[in-house]
Amino acid sequence: MSTDYTDMIKRFSGFAELYNQFRPRPPDDLGNLLTHWAHIDFPELVIDLGCGTGLSTRYWAERARQVIGIDPSSDMLQEAQVQTHFPNVSYRQGFGHQTGLPDHCADIITCCDSLHWMEPSSTFAEIVRVLRPSGVFAWLHCSEPVMTPWEVDQAHRKFWQTSKAADEARAVTGAALRWSRAEYIQCMQASFRYVCQLQLHQAGMSHAEQLVGWVLTYGHVQSLFKLGVTEADIGLDEFAQTAHQILGKTSSPWYVSVEVSAGIR
Questions:
Q1: Whose CB among 58, 91, 140, 173 lies 3.0–4.6 Å from 112's, allowing a Cys bridge?
Q2: Whole-angstrom Cα distance, residue 89 to residue 17?
Q3: SS3 166
Q4: Residue 181 and residue 116 in contact, taking contact as beta carbons nearer than 8 Å
């Protein structure tokens, strides 16, 4: 199936440094889970599809012998190279359906908050081709953060609703996304002998500037900015003001649930 990914690549251009600074890494428990399922203590090769700036790729640097991140965005990959100082971690420009890797070479393949930009059938065919027998694929999808104190979380939810309404009014994300979650799950079930869905959880500490930085990494927000929409138009200025007023220079906990959909080849 031929698919034009030009708009998707443009969506993730222009804010790679910001993305790398404020986005969280995968949960600590993920590595243990996937290596147990792969029946291997130390993977020879882990592939990270849609790796972006390499946050989810570098996660494996001390957990695997070799790690390769793949992404179509030269902008994101350039930042990944700048941020990576592990000799066993490398990056390639490519797609989920066209990695250029040998057959059955990977013990584990991950895709962190990026699978929904990839055409399901051709991508899963490539994943199955590249995974070794009994290898593991994991698709991670993060929930929106729950922030504290509750007033900050309330302000974030208001911002989220306002910004998504602006996104929908301009059909920014709707025009880019082509496939439903059900299509990916159906492809997983057809591609693997065992499929499981579970939740992992993550917590951290952030001050107001970090929380505002986090929401600035939302793809729909950056796409709206590229269309000339202002921070005031989507309520970002109001959220930032509330976060700074309540938190000042102090840090406060945030919590994220990560939905993991995993398949065994």
A1: 140
A2: 19
A3: helix
A4: yes
Q: Distance between CA atoms of 230 and 224, rounded to whole angstroms?
A: 8
The C-alpha atoms of residue 11 and residue 52 are separated, in whole angstroms, by 12
- How many beta carbons lie within 10 A of that of residue 133, not counting itself? 7
| Residue corresponding to tokens 């991140």 | 69
For residue 230, what are its two tokens? 């202002």
Question: Which DSSP string do the residues of 179-204 spell out, in sequence order?
Answer: --HHHHHHHHHHH-SEEEEEEEEEEE
Interatomic CA distance for residues 252 and 96, integer angstroms: 37
Give buried/exposed letters for 108-125 (b at 16+ CB in 10 A, else e).
bbbbbbbbbbbbbebbbe
Report the mean per-residue pLDDT for the chain.
95
CA distance 56 to 200: 15
For 11-41, write each residue's pLDDT tens digit: 888 999 999 999 999 999 999 999 999 999 9
Domains of the chain are 6-264 (3.40.50.150)
Query: Phi and psi (nearest 5°) for 201?
Result: -130, 150
